[in-house]
Amino acid sequence: MIQNKNSGDRSRKSGANGFTLIETIITLVVLSIAAIGVLSVFTTGMKGSANPLILNQAVSLAQEKMDIIIGDRQNPARGYAWIAAADYNTNALKYMPENPVPGFANFNRSVTIFCVDPGTLNTNNGQPFPCVSSGYAHITLTVTNAAINSVSVDTIVTNY
C-alpha cells in the first residue's frame, strides 16, 4: 500500500501556515473593542447635532419674516418710508416678538433694526430712525428653539 507523506497531520509540519482558533478569537475580540470605541464617538456626535428638520424650519421662519420686512419697505401704504424697529415691536402692527411663532409652538422670533454707517455695517451708530444721515439700516431677525438655540438672518437695507 502506498501512502502519501503529505497527507498527515498539519501540526507535525514545521512552519505550518494559517491561524489557530485561539488567535482568531483574540483578533476578533480586539477588533470588536476598537469598533465599539470608534462607533461611540459617532453616536455621541449624532446626539449632539441639531435636527436638520428643526434647523430648516427655523431658517424658513427667519427668511419669511425678513421677506415681510423687506416687502414692507416697498409698501405704498407706508409711503415708501423707512422701516423701523418700532414697526416690528408693537401690537398695533402685529410685529411684536413672536413667542411662540403662530403655528410653530416651539419657535420664537424677534427683530432688531439699527442705523449703521457705510464703513461699519455691523456697528450701531446710535442715529434715530429713519436713518437719514447714513442711509443704511442693519436688520437682524432671530428665531430660537430649544433644540437648536438660535438662527439669525442679517441684511443691510438702504434708502434708495
Please write out the topology.
Blueprint: H1 21-48, H2 52-73, E1 108-116, E2 136-145, E3 149-158
Antiparallel strand pairs: 1-2, 2-3
Order of helices and strands: HHEEE
Span of the ends, CA to CA? 109 Å
Percent strand equals: 15-25%
Decide which structural class fits the backbone. alpha+beta
Arrangement of strands in the largest sheet: 1-2-3
**Structural shape:** elongated
Helix content: 25-40%
Largest sheet: 3 strands, antiparallel
Mean pLDDT: 77
| Total E-strand runs | 3
- Compute the gyration radius: what is it? 33 Å
**What's the number of domains?**
2
Number of distinct helices: 2
Low-confidence stretches: 90-94
Notes on the protein architecture:
By secondary structure, this protein is of the alpha+beta class. The chain has two domains: 19-49; 52-158, no CATH class. Helix content is 31%, strand content 18%. It is built from two helices and three strands. A three-stranded antiparallel beta sheet has the order 1-2-3. Strand 2 (136-145) and strand 3 (149-158) form a beta hairpin. The N and C termini lie far apart (109 Å).
